[in-house]
Amino acid sequence: MKIVLFTENYHRGGVDTFIATLLNHWPDPGTEFTLICNHDHPGLKDIENRLKRPCRFITHNIATYSGLAIKTRGKLIPDLFRKLFTPVIKYLYIVLGIFRLRSILCNEQYDRLLIINGGYPGGDTCRAAGITWGLFSNRPLSVHNFHGLSVPPRKLLWLQEYFTDMLLSRLTQSFVTVSAAAVSSLALRSAIPASKVHYIHNGIEQPNLLKQQCDIRTEIGIQNTTPICLMLGAYESYKGHEFLLSAFRLIVDTIPSAHLVICGHGTPQDIKAVQNKVNQLTLQNNVALLNFRTDAMTILSQSDILLVTSQQFESFGLTCVEAMALRIPVVTTRVGGLPEVVADNEGGYCIGKDDIKQYSEIVIKLLNSSELRQIQGELGYRRYLKLFTANRMADNYAMLFKPNKNIIAG
Known about the structure:
2 domains, six-stranded parallel sheet, alpha/beta, Rossmann fold, seven-stranded parallel sheet, single chain
C-alpha cells in the first residue's frame, strides 16, 4: 500500500514528533510513505532525522492564508488589508489550493491519504487536500487527523466555513483527533456530523537517552543537587506562563533553591514578554528561558518535575506522556485533554487552571519528597505502558486503512 501524508505547518514541535513516531512504528513494513508539506516548514529536517524507515518528501510553495498572515505580521497597512478582505481572500486561497494540489496528489498512484492538521480548521491546504482527493483521486476517501481543539468560525466567515466544512465532510472518510476533549470541540463545527469524528490517543516510543546531549544544571550554572522544574512548550499566552511564574514565585518563597527551566519555540517578542514577567516577580535568579531544544528529552530526564500550565487550547499534552515514559512526575492544569493523560495520583496531579495556590502547594509537596516523586514517577510509567505507547497508537491508525475495521478509540 502506498500512503501519502499531507500536512501544513509553520512551527517545529509535536506534530513533527507524531509523524516520525507514526511512520517508525507502522505495523506493516511493506507500506510505502510519502510526506507532502509546505516548503517553509522549519521542522522538516527534524522529521527526516528521526525517521527509521524510508519516506519520500515532497515540498510545495502553494500560497496560504496562514503564510500571508505570517508575512504581514507587524506591517500595519498590509495586515489591515489582509484582515479587511479575509472573507474573500481566505477562500480564494483554498480554491486555488484545490487546483494546485490536483497535480501533486492525483498524478501519483497513491492508495490512501492521511491529512495531518495542527488543529481544526487549521491549515488551508489541509482542507484543500481532502477536497481535492475526494473530488479527483478515484480512491477511498481520506482520513483527516487534527491535533488541536477545534475553534468556532468567526461571524463574518460563518457561511463560508459552513460550506467548506460540509464539502470536506462529504469527501472525508473520518475525522480522527487525539482526545475525547478534541472530539467534543468539533461540535462547534455544525456541518461535520459527530458520527464521523473519533479519537486515538497519541503515543511515543520509549526514550533512548544512552547518549547525554547536555548537562542542564552545568549549562545554567547551578549545583547538581538543585531541584529543577521544567516547562516544555511554545512561548504563547495560552500555555500559561503568567500562571506558572506566579505559582513559582510562591514555590521559591518556600524553597529558595528551586529553579524553573522554560524552553520552546517563540519569537523574540514572545520570549521578552515572559522575561518581563520574570523580572516583575524578581525571579531572575531562579528562572532560565531557553529557546526550542532538540535535546529536550535529555533536559526532561534531568528534571525533577514537569510543569504544564495550559489555560486553553490543549487537546492532549504530549510532553506529559514523555515525562511519564521517563518516570518524571507531572503537575498540570485541568484543561482540554490533559486530564485524559494525567490522572491524579497516577503519575502526577491535575489542578484547576485558576488555582495558583493549590498548584504551588502540590509542586512544593513533590519537591520536598524524593520518595513521593519516585512513587508518582513509577505510577506514571505504568500508565504510559498501558495507554500511550507508540506501537499502540500506530496500530490504531493502521486500522483506519483496513476495510471493514472499526477505529479503536483511545
